[in-house]
Amino acid sequence: EKGGFDHFMLKEIYEQPRAILDTYRGRLLAKEGIIRMAGIDQNMEKFLNANRIIIVACGTSWHAGLVAEYIFEDLARIPVEVEYASEFRYRNPVVTENDVLIAISQSGETADTLAAIKLAKEKGAFVFGVCNVVGSSIARETDAGAYTHAGPEIGVASTKAFTTQITVLTLLALKLAKAKGVFNSTRFHEYLTELEQIPAKVERALLTNPLVEIIAKVYKDSPNCLYLGRGYNFPVALEGALKLKEISYIHAEGYPAAEMKHGPIALIDEHMPVVVIATSKGHYEKIVSNIQEIKSRKGKIIAVVTEGDVQVRELADHVIEVPETLENLTPLLTTIPLQLLSYHIAVMRGCNVDQPRNLAKSVTVE
Length: 366
Ligand code: F6R
Hints:
It is found in: Cytoplasm. This protein has 15 helices and twelve strands. The chain has 366 residues and is α/β, with parallel strands linked by helices. The strands form three sheets. It has a five-stranded parallel sheet, sandwiched between helices. Helix 2 runs antiparallel to helix 10, helix 11 (209-219) crosses helix 15 (331-348) and helix 12 (233-248) runs parallel beside helix 15 (331-348). Residues 58-61, 105-107, 110, 113, 157-158, 242, 246, 362-363 line the site of fructose -6-phosphate.
């Protein structure tokens, strides 16, 4: 049942090329230059007339929401707010009929996310769901939606759900960008053809596995770990840290790299591993100077970079390369080695990777 893998988590990490492909299959028609998604096509006016999009989710799905915020604002020029479902539902939020709420949930059963949907519906918002489990409560409660086609996710730590959520939300953003006329067809086509390359590039990112395992051995006994990224890689840093803490029980924090000097830099000494996501597109020089700041305080640097990088390689203790892609699609690749890193560290520490202590696959109580 684990298909030759030791754990469901590793199997599911390796399923990502296929899961992403399954998620855009039949939707992304690059040759025709269209994206077909019934749940959006039938409700295009709702999206186009929206004052803003509010995204609600919990945990890893919330991180996918953060990536989506950057993509929606950058590509479709629609204002987006991303909220923890638990905070949104209890803080008397301003929601009107002109808002669109997108709820993201792998299980489709998360209690807080479900409650946030009900609240938004009461206030007249149009509610769109991005779920993995077909027929789940959230899928039924929303006005429309688009499923991720990740297949069953058994490991408690979410992996392929995250990358397929980002895939669906990217398709949605691209559709809206096209419909709004923000994109000309050349640019649209560039995105569609690059999206088609993503499964093969994820496959290549998975080839880092033996190297990541070696790095895991070096840091498996660290009590702490910091994850830094900017732009599209900021949510990836949060997600990398969450993966490490939930399955290896190592304390980890993700930060936007520039926030380091507002506090966390005080933590850095020769015992602190810092994972920095430093891909070539988007604030590269800025992140290089963040890396220099870490190095001058003797922090250990594990860098995720774009293939062929030279500058970071000179500074970092370890370098993990992922293929180049469009900036907006970067998280689909940079997240892969971070999933592998947490997996190997957890295994080396003897942790129950698929069923970490105190955690449940779906959180049906608040
Ligand atoms: C982390 C993880 C959780 C879930 C969260 C939301 O690996 O799995 O943080 O992402 O509980 O669950 P869903 O997406 O089912 O609503």
